[in-house]
Amino acid sequence: MITLPRYRRMLLLTEGRLGVFSSKTAASLLRYRLDDVVGVLDSTCAGQSLSRFLPAAPRRPIFARFDEARAAVAPDALIVGVAPVGGAMPAEMRRPVLEALRGGVDVVSGMHELLCDDAECVAAARAGGATIHDVRRAPPEQPIAAGRARGTRARRVLTVGTDCNVGKMAASLELTRTAAARGMDAAFVATGQTGIMIEGWGAAVDHVVCDFAAGVVESLVLHVAQRQIVFVEGQGSVLHPAYSGVSLSLLHGSCPDAMILVHHAGRSHYRFDESIALPDLRTLIELHESMARPLHPCRVVGVALNTVGLSDGEARRACEEVSRDVGLPSTDVVRFGADVLLDACVGQFRM
Amino acid sequence: MITLPRYRRMLLLTEGRLGVFSSKTAASLLRYRLDDVVGVLDSTCAGQSLSRFLPAAPRRPIFARFDEARAAVAPDALIVGVAPVGGAMPAEMRRPVLEALRGGVDVVSGMHELLCDDAECVAAARAGGATIHDVRRAPPEQPIAAGRARGTRARRVLTVGTDCNVGKMAASLELTRTAAARGMDAAFVATGQTGIMIEGWGAAVDHVVCDFAAGVVESLVLHVAQRQIVFVEGQGSVLHPAYSGVSLSLLHGSCPDAMILVHHAGRSHYRFDESIALPDLRTLIELHESMARPLHPCRVVGVALNTVGLSDGEARRACEEVSRDVGLPSTDVVRFGADVLLDACVGQFRM
Hints:
homodimer, Rossmann fold, 6-stranded parallel sheet, 12 helices, alpha/beta, about 35% helix
């Protein structure tokens, strides 16, 4: 697995891409590691209020240049706050990354293109005495999955999505926090670059060679086998043409005891191609249960609905509608808390 | 994609693993590239008849040492004829591989562990002026799939399996040959190491980083977009815990117009773990059709039944039974030919 030092003064690099989707990583760190974030680095919107770009964002300064940020907030790490499709570093990010490394500040990146393979970055890190953390690099262990996750003491809950970017990580994180708040011994299993940056350990399953993807998931779950309940972060969607292999590897690698379906309210078509309709939720629930059955039978026990952009009233009605439609509890975990979904999991396990 | 020179005098290295399953690659080359195979290298069974280890094997000598084989049959390539789980080179194969390379004979390997990354092999190849071909290495192009295969002129047929090692490659190859024999402009799309060795081009999808697996499949299919009909080699099974991600990437990357389900007659449990029952064929057919539907609706049009070990009469009865059970044509393509399955595809396309 990949591990990170516990940084306490993170500076988030978004250079020209600050936004809910365009800088998903930065937005998530601002939500789940806020106490450890000291600012944002983005010359295209320096000095402006963060909430102009991220709804309900907390107050953190936006800096134009690395030197300026360094003088003002003394970061202990520069975090590349974006993960573009294809995973190459945007050209305009190279300069601040090199400045940080030369200046002795660690850089954490979740891009497919590894900074460790970039000679200029490696030289800069050496010159500055800084460390590069490519959290998306393949973990050193490369096991073949064999359903071993079925044997954990921990109950396993996997989030599965109707599409990419619907809120699977947020649902898993909120469930973990809610369980912990109830005194349960709960763990979050990070399976993507942002999750790893938040939690400090995990593996980016989408960057693992396909034959070992489920095996890596299995090894992550076995790492927390002795906990009481573990929430495995889902990725992509089992019907997404590009990422379905990642999603199914997660299902068969983690052998969940319960699944939470995650959906973006009102999304009827795939984000990558609006000519392709999403299957309805009931079809997706049935499909996931069919795919789980031979190895380890498992039910979808609730729906986490992402209602961003709706009013509270609209959001409640959307959740009720989904709940009636599929016959399962549904809520927006960010807005209303994860209790009803955790109850559904616990009820399933008779904990 | 990965391409190979057209070798005409292949020597197959099986060192201690000669057998239907244990040297699947060698067995397949003996079936589909027989004219280009000059012998087998295996000190543990040298001088014996090949048919003692591979039923119905053709006559080819088994040699104990590379030098001996070289003097007798002058190979133009040494082919590593095994692909063990996990993909590391068995220690006992190192010596003949190094001898071949030092002697100026190319080595073709389909293991996950690349010979190109092995300093001793690289040095031997340089000394001998030989080339190493790691057919399982990731192809240079790494696209993200987006359902582009739907737009090919070629009709696309994918083999899907109930388990690993059931005969998906053989089914696709036999269908391709049968189509060609009918005068159709047919292509075989190799997606695994053995398929690439047989056909001379393709990509080992299981060795691609998960996020790009479907994209690589898509690019292979687009390479033969202008043919009349293409048969995409399936891999693994969508319900196999270790390899399901590879199988689903194939489905969503190739967007088939028809699928052929491949099954090993009488196999009721997974080979890797006999405590896990295979789902029945009807369930699997439904599941594959559900997984294809949102992107490109597609039917399973027939069942290729691997009846190895049965008598002709038993094999016929097994095919009839499957056919009655699922309501689709079924045959053993190796034993009885692929005509009825090709008819089912052509009927589906109204070609």
